[in-house]
Amino acid sequence: MSLFIQRMFDGLAEGSIYALLALALVVIFRSTGQLNFAQGEIGTLCAFFASTLTLSGLPVWLAILISMVIGFVIAALIERVVVRPIEERNPGAVIVALIGVFLAVNQLSAMFWGVDARSLPSLFPTDADSFFRIGDAAIRYERIGIIGVLVVVLILLYLLFNKTKIGLAMRAVANNQESSNLVGIRVGNILILGWGLAGAIGALAAMMLAPSAALSGTLMLGPFLLASVAAVLGGLDSPVGAVVGGILIGLLKAFLIGYVDFLADMLFPVMLVVLLGVLLFRPAGLFGTEKVVRV
Amino acid sequence: MSGNILEVSGLTAGYGQIEVLHGLDFTVADGEIVVILGANGAGKTTTMRAISGMIGRTGSVRFDGNDISTARPDAVLRAGISQVPQGRGTFTDLSVEDNLRAGAYTVKGSTVGDLDRWFEVFPRLLERRDQRAGSLSGGEQQMLAIARAMMNRPKMLLCDEPSLGLAPIITQNLFKILGELRDEMGMALLVVEQNAGLSLQLADRAYVLETGGIVATGTGDELLADDTIKQAYLGGVG
Amino acid sequence: MSNDTGRPDVAPPTVPDEGPITAADVIAADDTPGLPKRTPQFSALHWLGRVAVFVVPLAYVYLRVLGKTGVLGDGWSNSGLGLLADAFIIAIAVMGVNLITGFTGQLSIGHAAFFALGAYTGLAMTDGRVTTPFFGDDNVWTAGWTIPVAALLCFMVGCVVGLPALRLKGIYLALTTLVFVEATRSVLKYERFDGVTGGATGIKGDKYSPPPWAESIGLEGRGDINEWFIYLSLALLLLIMLLVAGLMRSRIGRSMVATRDNELAAEVMGVNLSVVKSVVFGLSGAITGVGGALFGLKLGLVDGDVPLFGLLGAVTFLVAMVVGGSAQVWGPLVGAVFYVFANERARSVGEAPGDFDLDFQIVLVLMVAAIVVIVGRYLSKNLERIKANVSNEAVRAAVIVVGSLAAIFVLQDVLLGIGSGRKLDGLGGVVFGVLLVLFARFAPFGVVGTFRLARNRIVQVVPKPPIGAKVAPLPPSAGRPESGLAHDAEAEAEATPTGGRADDESSPPP
């Protein structure tokens, strides 16, 4: 039982990271209808920035904040410089361009920081004795911290979307760009804002993950795929779906490794089957709304 | 009625390389209801989009003494022109109340008073305040679109084919409401329509638009009496 | 296309190659990566140009790369030869991607999985890890058999995965294929399949060497493997190009294009979408699997961490396809050669010049010269006419390719200094990523497509006269670029190279 609780918290913490990343993907999909393939790589780049900043003596929380701003700027630039000009002329090519951005950003980190792994200190205590017990289960503070970060982000996003004018504009743009224009919303600015927001959230996800993994160019490749699967499973237009999907995949991974010995290394084959299964029966995902395409 | 609130001259606009409007001239006086009548493809919607800055255009558009020939949509709204787009264009995934709030996007300060007021005018919307706009009927969505446009406190309202897809009885009711709005608020109204019968009854003045140019103009009654117009725009409708 | 109706006196275009169209014909018509000037039909110059497109590169490979006869030096080093073989092998893999993504319009970034499967098949079989009743006791399959077996395996896997996956579209399909890559990699590394795949350590099985009869052309043993693979993969590549060109001319090929251009319309017209798509996915997987088998046999060493088997490999194939030109039979070859050598150049930035650097620089100079000519004509006194004909697309694509090559050189020579020993990891990836973005933005038809587009514009901007209309007699300058036909940018954007060709054929003969 204690092992079960421990694994559950492992899964929840890891799932929170996927949920954050999936949230970032959903924010972009809702506004632009694209899957941002570069999302994970922007995060990796920001984690490298944060690592360098902490090495120069900055406190971790400040380094993370600054890197989130960097993530915001990078993603906003991608929207303005890459996505929008291509969308206007050749919408089908945006996905190809985003894959190009994925490659370029991925390799940028290798160019600036080399191929040796770096490290990023955690925001939370990671000493050997920084845990508490539920029964016999030892729960590390870091796990709770990461789950807490997700909760805080969720609350902030809820407030932003539902209690502010900007949030209302973001929802309006996600729903109908033409009408948004007609009520005086500068759609372009809102799109930039949405991408930037997603960039910052994605960066946060990477910086939550980096302390417990090796910070290298491949840091976010796997997590990005898992988060994308999470977002698609939950429904690419549903923030709730992203969080549920992320947590589910985190738990699935923890329990697969913990309990199903022969599938421990087979996470991706399992994901492929789950993904195909869900998409064939619920093309819009578990919480997504199906779009009717009129001809 | 003192002078023209909207003066359009030499307006050309189009999409890409295709010019749709070839130099329109028309005016709307203060508090006047003007109808632009035209068949499919005549350029009605393009005219609307050109005035509200949704598409590139050349020529001169003056509104309330300001030149808005090159203004962006939000600047046009701030100048006091709201548009009810064709097909209503409500935010289907947003609640009715959020739709109205979005309509007041360019208004500074509190809009609670406006919200209450339009819920009073359109009690159906109050009943459905928290529903998704997409779940409303066509007539209700048209009300919502008008209320949303009014949230901007406009001096002039543009309506793009408000009767489209609505039953005649609902259209009649709609035009009645539009007339009342003008009478109460002294607001000018520019309506483009295919439905000549109802809209000309509402109109103080009307223009006939054909393939991107104005071909006839007169008061609503004059045009209603005109045989050519009757044939072209009333013949099929009756 | 009928944007020029104000000029009824303009003659119809030169119609190339009438008569039944064969696969070879398609390939031949795909020629001339060069200046967008087209000589009149049937002239000696015209045929000279067509032949030169084949002969010059082959002669270059024979005389310069392989160093036969010693006229142009002693040939490249063994590693240089390996790169050329790699380029051909990757071209085969990209042919597979092009079939499903370029021609059928289903974005797959999952073909790295087929590449890996093919490579593992090749090595597992030559290493005696697969048991069959046919090949004697040691179970070492003749290497030649591994290639069709890899193709068959990949075909079956492709059909099985394709049947559900290709019901998905756009980003959903792209993501699913990406997960497919990682899933395949997990399976190949799975310790329980150790006996066949070698598990996490992979297979070291460099037992493959050129067949005995190759001794007659001077190839002996594993040491000459790179030269052998240049011949072998080039032959297979040409074979596959013929097959693909033939396939695209067939009923199923037309279904594929119809599917890409308008799924709903294709379905209404009776194309069984899911079957067509999965069979094509299987075929494309098989082609990429052939490339993978060659790759594995040549490398003699596979494990799950080979970059081309993972996400980066998946993206690599896409880069090569887009740069070369999607839906172009010649695109993958151009794209793969470009990719392999530019990547090698970027990778070895800061190192002493390699044996093909001179060639690389000559190519760069030639490309710069070509651009100067194009831009010069573009800006010449015939500005309007040339502008209409050469099209911005060609200029853009040329500038992009040469610009990125120049960037690699500038970074090498200026930033680091030749031979300084400093490395710039990731430069190639950054350049290719940026290239993908630039091509998506400026030259969606890739290098080959853009040049064909430019060339086709010159011969087919003529409006088609209505059926039965009297056609004016053909003036002597017909079909020349100087015939001065205006067109608008929109028609240009719409006229895909394939569409342009269709117009060529349907134009009435003079």
Short description, anyone?
Chain A has 295 residues and is mainly alpha-helical. Chain A has helices at residues 2-32, 39-55, 60-89, 94-113, 141-163, 165-175, 177-182, 187-209, 221-234, 239-259, 267-281, and strands at residues 131-134, 137-140.
What does this molecule look like?
The complex is a heterotrimer of chains A (295), B (238) and C (510). Chain A has 295 residues and is mostly helical. Chain A is 72% helix and 3% strand. Chain A contains 11 helices and 2 strands. In chain A, strand 1 (131-134) and strand 2 (137-140) form a beta hairpin. In chain B, helix 3 (96-103) runs parallel beside helix 6. With 238 residues, chain B is α/β, with parallel strands linked by helices. Chain B contains 10 helices and 10 strands. Chain B has helices spanning 44-51, 73-79, 96-103, 112-121, 123-127, 138-150, 168-185, 196-202, 220-225, 227-234; strands at 4-15, 18-29, 33-38, 57-63, 66-67, 81-84, 156-160, 188-193, 205-210, 213-219. Helices cover 38% and strands 28% of the residues of chain B. The mean pLDDT of chain B is 88. Chain C has 510 residues and is mainly α. Chain C has helices at residues 23-29, 44-65, 78-103, 111-126, 143-165, 170-189, 194-197, 225-249, 251-261, 263-268, 273-299, 311-324, 331-347, 357-379, 383-416, 427-442, 446-460, 489-494, 497-506, and strands at 203-204, 301-302. In chain C, helix 4 (111-126) runs antiparallel to helix 5 (143-165), helix 12 (311-324) packs across helix 16 (427-442) and helix 17 packs parallel to helix 19. The longest helix of chain C is centred in the C-terminal third of the chain and has 34 residues, at 383-416. Chains in contact: A-B, A-C.
Secondary-structure content class of chain A? mainly alpha
What characteristic shape of chain A results from the CA principal axes?
globular
Q: Helix/strand-derived class of chain B? A: alpha/beta
Total number of strands of chain A: 2
- Largest contact between protein chains? A-C, 50 and 50 residues
In what range is the share of β-strand residues of chain A? under 5%
Biggest sheet statistics of chain B: 6 strands, mixed
Largest sheet of chain A: 2 strands, antiparallel
According to DSSP, the number of beta strands of chain B is 10
Ranges of chain A where pLDDT stays below 50 over 5 or more residues in a row are: none
Mean pLDDT across residues of chain A: 90
